[in-house]
Amino acid sequence: MARIVVDVMPKPEILDPQGKAIVRALPHQGVTVFSGVRQGKRFELEVDGEVTDEILATAREAAETMLSNPVIEDVVNVSVIDDVEA
């Protein structure tokens, strides 16, 4: 079994209230080295068997049409990660 990872982030021009809340909360935890945070989404798509070019293309299409909202989000990564134990 293999996995395809899809990472989706808000477009740069879109406000990210969750990211702003996180960056404001970090100093309260003693973390002061970060000046900004953007929060996105990660999807893991499991595939029985090997990931072919066709399967990866299908994952990219699903990422663009179903897993993200193209008006406010960008798909920033679609990649295969190491095989997973069943």
Radius of gyration of CA atoms, rounded to a whole number: 16 Å
The largest pleated sheet is described as:
3 strands, antiparallel
Integer count of domains:
1
Ends apart, CA distance between termini = 6 Å
Structural class: alpha+beta
The strands making up the biggest β-sheet line up spatially as 2-1-3
Q: What's the total number of strands?
A: 3
Shape: elongated
Element string (H = helix, E = strand): EHEHE
What is the assigned CATH homologous superfamily? Phosphoribosylformylglycinamidine synthase subunit PurS
CATH-defined topology: Mth169, Chain: A
Q: What is the residue-averaged pLDDT? A: 94
Specify the CATH class. Alpha Beta
Given the structure, what is the number of helices? 2
Stretches with pLDDT under 50, minimum 5 residues: none
Q: Helical content, roughly? A: 25-40%
Our estimate of the beta-strand percent is 25-35%
The name of the CATH architecture is 2-Layer Sandwich
Organism: Kocuria coralli
Pfam families: PurS
Subunit structure: Part of the FGAM synthase complex composed of 1 PurL, 1 PurQ and 2 PurS subunits.
GO biological process, one term: 'de novo' IMP biosynthetic process
Would you kindly provide a written description of the structure presented here, covering whatever features stand out?
By secondary structure, this protein is of the alpha+beta class. The chain has a single domain, classed as 2-Layer Sandwich (Mth169, Chain: A), CATH 3.30.1280. Helix content is 28%, strand content 29%. A 3-stranded antiparallel β-sheet has the order 2-1-3, covered by helices on one side. The chain is elongated, with a radius of gyration of 16 Å. The mean pLDDT is 94. It catalyses: N(2)-formyl-N(1)-(5-phospho-beta-D-ribosyl)glycinamide + L-glutamine + ATP + H2O = 2-formamido-N(1)-(5-O-phospho-beta-D-ribosyl)acetamidine + L-glutamate + ADP + phosphate + H(+). Part of the FGAM synthase complex composed of 1 PurL, 1 PurQ and 2 PurS subunits. Its EC number is 6.3.5.3. GO terms for molecular function: ATP binding; phosphoribosylformylglycinamidine synthase activity.
